[in-house]
Amino acid sequence: MNRYDRQIPIFGEDGQKGIMSAVVGIAGCGGLGVNVATQLAVAGVSNFILCDPQMPEVFNLNRQFIYTAGDYRPKSVITAEWIMALNPLAEIKVHAEPFSEDTKYMFKDCTIIIDCLDSFAPRMVLSDLCEELGIPLIHAGVSGFDGQIAVYIPGKTKTIREMIGTMKDEDATVPSVGAAVSAIASMEALEALKVMSGIRSDCEGRLVTVDMRSWTTESIEM
Question: Does the predicted TM-score (pTM) go above 0.85?
Answer without folding.
Answer: yes
